[in-house]
Amino acid sequence: MSLTLRGGWRMDRALYGREAVLDPSGLVARLTGLAPYGFAGVRYEHGDDPPVTVFTGGRGMGKTALLKQIRNAYRRGTPLALLDCARVEAPAEHGPGWSPVTGALAELAVQLSPRVLSARPVEFPRLALGLAAVTSISWSQEDDERARRDLQRLGPVLATVDESRGTAGTWVGKVLAKLAAQVAEGAAPMAGLLAEATVETVLEDVFGRSQRRSEAWYGAYRSAGGNGTLGLRQLAVDFSQGGPRRSDAEGFLVGALVEDLRRAYVGLTRRGTRRGRPLILLDNAQLPLGRRLIEPVLRDRADGRRDQVVVIAASRDRGHEGLRRATRLRLPEVAHRAPCPRGTDITSGILAVELTPLSAAQTRSLFDRYDPAGRTPPALPGGVQRLTGGRPVGVALLARAAGEAPAGVRGDLTPGALLDLAVEVREDAPAVPVAETLLAELVPELRPDEAAALTVLAAAHDEESARALARTRLRAASLEGDVALRLRDALRGDGWPAGGGGGTGRAFGSGGAYGSGGAYRTDRAYGPSGAIRSGGGGGSDGAYGSGGAAGEGGAPSGGPTGGGAPATGGAAGVAVRTAAGATGPVPAYFVTDPLLRALLLHRLRFQDRDAPEYTAWRAVHETLLAHYGPRPTPYRLRQELALGRPDGAVAALREAFHGPDVGGWLDRLLFVASAPYPRDPHRAGPDPRRAVALGQDPGAVGELGGLDEAATALHQSVRRLLHAVWLLTDPLALPDDDVVERMAYELRQLSGRHLTGSLPLWDAATHWPRDIRAWRAPSSPPGSEDGA
Fold first, then answer.
1. Pairing of strands 573-577, 518-521
2. What are the residues whose beta carbons fall under 8 Å from the beta carbon of 452, sequence distance 6 or more?
3. Contacts of 155 (CB under 8 A, 6+ apart)
4. Is-contact 116 78, C-beta < 8 A?
5. Three-state SS for 323?
6. CA dist 289 to 2, 57, 100, 294, 309, Å?
């Protein structure tokens, strides 16, 4: 199942936070022996055994942009090719002599061949012979015209050997005539004989005398016994058989490309005329084609063969089997050296470099580029960092939108308001909606029907509620199986983290309205015993650390670098504390990544442009409300809040306040307040939650009927606190200092009202404002270092 949202945008933009790769002494310079742009000599770090370098990271982490920037930096200084393994398309009506590998090798050769600096163009005689051998394996007199087209497609590769004769096409007619003559003489059109006749003609009509010696290289092929002609025949036979034999033949063709590049650097007539090393860039190398191109290189190097080629690839799947023994480093760690010791496994020849999110400083630099006058709110870069987790594609597009926003609204921009705008990403095209453009970038292969279904399921908190939505609202989409499960697997296959399974029965205990309490968490992983797994948590300096979204300058485990959720605000799941003190996990959101979920929910609310009814939004959340039943559980109260009905949550929190588990009460407050806010687009002025949080909107008087003075005061305090936390933890809003101070005030007041649990409330009053100002979710327990 493929994951339109087709299209997407590609701006030629300056890259931020990638200096470790592109600096004059950065990783690529040390691999190629050349500094970018100026091509000054740089000492090789790995001698004659460079690793295959694989940049890993999820959607939107800038892998493609980084490969393109490397191409731009080196394209005139060394032979270079950039190939997207997802875009090698089969030619129309091709014969069985074409495969994705042969198509990719032909494209690589054509890109690598042109002259650079003072060096001659690179010739590919060995690859050309191998491709010619396999192209005509299925020729027949009845299919002569197709064979002609297949052979003509070899023209660009043969042109690297002799431009005039390779492109002339006269050799094609001679090949076909020779094949027809063989059949007329009674010879069976076997793959080996067809290959031999084709190669013979190519050698005679296209290759010069010295180039003809390249045929001998195929004498090393299986069963050739040192005879190049026999090797090419056997290569064609193996290719025609398919399966493992074809894989062997394709691997040898990869070796032919590498050998041609090596000879270009060490041949007697070329010694000293070339500087540095050639560069092959492979995007989407997690696909089968990527492995079929890289693995032969790794095998040859593991066997002790040395070549001159630098291979740099990009993969969305950091856990790919092909990386099982790779040396793993994070991007900042390769700035000055990148050791990659070779072991016995061939994959030990891979250096896997995990791309890290942009840091807070880098995000601010991007905003300064698009808004040099500083007319947007000072907190806006931090809010975008929180929403995107530092994912470069999100930061870049939202920064551009901020710079292009109408002058009248720039001063009131929030991350949510940026999603409502349109932005010009191409000079020759009209402006496009920011939210839809960014969503298409994160899930570019999503079909329209899948996008519509995922938009509905994004409101679900776990797999069970997603399946309930699918049964109720997506019946037509589930005719071929449970659409929730299909989309779950599609997201996983695209590298996105998976939401948890299970239901709500374990959430917050099972006794009474709130049970025995639950522990709120934000994008942290709880082990089965309740302990926080390593890899999450905020940086030691409070904000996002010096180099990334969280932790040691980057994303926690499973963050955006691996296709997972950035460390941003908003609840991703709940861990439950029972009366005995044990903790158990409760599932995360069905769409776990905060940015992807925010974009889908934006689409759910605004795609129909039916304000103020918001029919789709209301229908989906009403369905979830019914799914959670009539009891005022935190899940139900959260849905009520998403529908703009806070009264039930305020009453339930007030009634539970005097219970013994104050920590659990704070966790429930945070969980309920993680509800998406039912906002209006392009709304001017302050967020309505601000007035409630500051006590400027006391609400309906009727809801307080029957309460004594103390209960009324408690009710109003809880109401103000809930709206303050709801506003301050909303990734689409910006923190407000007045609201932060009021939140702390209300928590201190509540600490004085509770007879036995004043300490957690006082700690929350102390630490939650620090968390909010540092762009972290409120810590639980307050003051713990693992606040998200």
1. antiparallel
2. 477
3. 166, 167, 169
4. yes
5. helix
6. 17, 19, 7, 9, 18
Q: How far apart are CA 81 and CA 278, in angstroms?
A: 9
Check if the beta carbon of residue 561 is closer than 8 Å to that of residue 56: yes
Q: Tell me the C-alpha distance between 695 and 103, whole Å.
A: 68
Q: What share of the chain is helix, strand, coil (3-state, %, to 5)?
A: 50, 5, 45
Q: Cβ neighbours of residue 672 under 8 Å, at least 6 residues apart?
A: 634, 637, 638, 641, 649, 653, 722
How big is the CA angle at 128 (ends 126 and 134), to the nearest 5 degrees? 105
CB atoms within 10 A of CB 96: 15
What's the rounded Cα separation, in Å, for the pair 33 and 41? 6
Give the pLDDT band (50/70/90) at residue 136: confident
Q: Tell me the C-alpha distance between 659 and 756, whole Å.
A: 9
What average pLDDT does the structure give for the chain?
Answer: 83
Query: Which phi-psi region, left, alpha or beta, contains residue 603 (left: φ > 0; alpha: ψ -120 to 50)?
Result: alpha
Q: How many CB atoms lie within 10 A of CB 243?
A: 8
Cβ-proximal residues to 521 (8 Å cutoff; 6+ apart), any chain: 571, 572, 573, 574, 575, 780, 788
User: Which among 102, 90, 161, 107 has a CA at the least distance from the CA of 137?
Assistant: 102
- 497 close to 564: Cβ distance less than 8 angstroms: yes
Query: For 36, which DSSP code?
Result: T
Determine phi and psi for 232, rounding to 5 degrees.
-65, -40
**Which amino acid does the sequence have at 321?**
E
401-426: average pLDDT = 92
Q: Which residue from 383, 367, 384, 366 is spatially nearest to 375, judged by alpha carbons? A: 367
Backbone angles phi and psi of 109, in degrees to 5? -60, -45
CA dist 723 and 717 (Å) reads: 10
- Between CA 225 and CA 713 the distance in angstroms is 94
**Token pair in block for residue 282:** 């492979």
Q: Is 52 helix (H, G, I), strand (E, B) or coil?
A: strand
**Model-wide pTM > 0.70:** yes
Closest CA to 633 of 523, 545, 510, 754: 510
- The string of pLDDT tens digits covering residues 248-257 is 999 999 999 9
Q: Is 97's pLDDT higher than 60?
A: yes
Sequence-separated (6 or more) residues with CB below 8 Å from residue 592: 496, 497, 498, 499, 564, 565, 572
Task: Decide if 423 contacts 397 (C-beta within 8 A).
Answer: yes
Q: Any residues with CB less than 8 A from the CB of 282 and at least 6 apart, and which? A: 83, 85, 290, 293, 294, 311, 312, 313, 314
Instruction: Write phi, then psi, for 254 (nearest 5 degrees).
Output: -60, -45
User: Coil, helix or strand for 84?
Assistant: strand
Q: Write the DSSP assignment of 454-466 as a string of letters.
A: HHHHTT-SSHHHH
User: Is the model's pLDDT at 647 over the cut of 80?
Assistant: yes
Instruction: Give 713-719's long-range contacts (Cβ < 8 A, gap of 24+).
Output: 714/654, 714/657, 714/750, 714/753, 715/650, 715/651, 715/654, 717/746, 717/749, 717/750, 717/753, 718/650, 718/653, 718/654, 718/657, 718/750, 719/646, 719/650, 719/692
How many Cα atoms occupy the beta-carbon half-sphere of 386 within 13 Å?
29
How far is CA 115 from each of CA 70, 75, 110, 214, 273, rounded to the nearest angstrom? 18, 10, 11, 21, 12
Question: Pick from 468, 507, 476: which is nearest to 590 by CA?
Answer: 468
The residue behind tokens 């049970």 is 515
Provide mean pLDDT across the span 337-354.
94
The two most distant CA atoms of the chain are separated, in Å, by 110
Report CA 475 to chain centroid distance, whole Å.
30
Strand order from edge to edge, sheet including 310-315: 80-84, 279-283, 310-315, 52-56, 350-354, 327-330
